[in-house]
Structures are given as structure tokens and as C-alpha cells.
Amino acid sequence: MLYLSANVSFNRFGSLSLITKLVVTRAVPGTVEATLKVEQYNTNRVGTVHGGLILSLTDTLGSLAVASKGHFMTGVSTDVGTSFVRPAGRVGDVLHAKAVLTGIGKQLAYTRVDFTNPAGELVAYGYHTKYVGKSSNHHVCIILSLCLDPRMLTDAHAYQENVKFTEDGEKTVEGNDVE
């Protein structure tokens, strides 16, 4: 408990604000690249990027890599892990990440996320396994059955289904695109 109370920089703002400054720089089917400028609240007690941030980014970016293939629902995590190679930076540094969907089947999706510093050196890498079985054939009827109040439904819900993109990710070739 002493460590957690001493390490208020990482916990003070809650997990959602840890990645509010995440910038997706490139997204094509199966790959998502992003950067994050390190803020004080992203650091640990010795002033370097907190490992929990790297793990959270592995989870988030792994899910985005699945979504980049057109999956509206990205399933649930079954396994996630991170290996730390060297300190990932200090306040003001820019952390780079590249998430790749390494495989997807009827039940599971696998991703890998590499984290590099501005010099291009690997600082950490993570893996993320997701159960996508019930979400791989997602259709709007699932949303309708889960909605507690039908009045909350809007026209946007009509787009909540899987789509297929061109290889460069620029156009939708199957399903409805969001206007």
C-alpha cells in the first residue's frame, strides 16, 4: 500500500486519462500505429514511463488492430502481457507504438504491439489474445437485444456491424460506412 500511495502520479487521474493524448498516426487493415507524448501522470516513481501504461496501451492498441480489420466488436481479452526491454522514456519524450494483428480465427485473435523511442530503439513489446467468437459475426440485432431502453437507439446503431476495408484502409468494400 505504501508504494501505491507514494506513486500518485500514475493513479491520480484514473486509467481513462492515461491515454487521452494517444494519437493514431496510421491505420490500415491489421495494423495501427500511434504516438503518445509522455506526461507526468504516465510515469512511475523514478520518473520513467510506468509499465502499467505500456500494458494498457498493449490492450487498447491490440483491440484497435482487431477493429482495423472491420470488426465492430473486438471481443474480450483472454491473455495480455508485456516485456520491458529498456526504460521507455521520461516526461516530454514521445513513445511510438505499432500494433499488428498477427492472426485471427473463428474464436481467437492475436496481436503484437512494439514500442519504440524516438531513436527507433525497441523499449517494450506486448502481446494480446482476444476471444472474438461471439463478436466475429456481430450484427445490429445484438445491440438491440442488449439495449435497456429502446428510445436510446439512434440512426448510428444501424452502422454497428462488421465491415470490410480495401487493403489501404481508405474505403469500405462491404457493409455500411459511417458518414
The level 1 CATH classification is Alpha Beta
Indicate the CATH topology.
Answer: Thiol Ester Dehydrase, Chain A
C-alpha geometry: globular
- What do the pLDDT scores average to? 78
What does this structure look like?
The protein is an alpha+beta fold. It is built from four helices and eight strands. A six-stranded antiparallel sheet has the order 1-2-4-5-6-3, with helices on one face. A two-stranded antiparallel ribbon has the order 7-8. The chain is globular. The N and C termini lie far apart (49 Å). The relative contact order is 0.16.
Quick overview of this protein structure:
This is Thioesterase domain-containing protein. This protein is of the alpha+beta class and 179 residues long.
Considering the chains and any ligands shown, give keywords for the structure.
single chain, 179 residues, alpha+beta, Thiol Ester Dehydrase, Chain A, two-stranded antiparallel sheet, 4 helices, 18% helix, 32% strand, disordered N terminus
Write the layout of secondary structure elements.
Layout: H1 2-6, H2 8-11, E1 22-28, E2 31-37, H3 51-67, E3 76-84, E4 94-104, E5 108-116, E6 122-131, H4 140-146, E7 164-165, E8 172-174
Antiparallel strand pairs: 1-2, 2-4, 3-6, 4-5, 5-6, 7-8
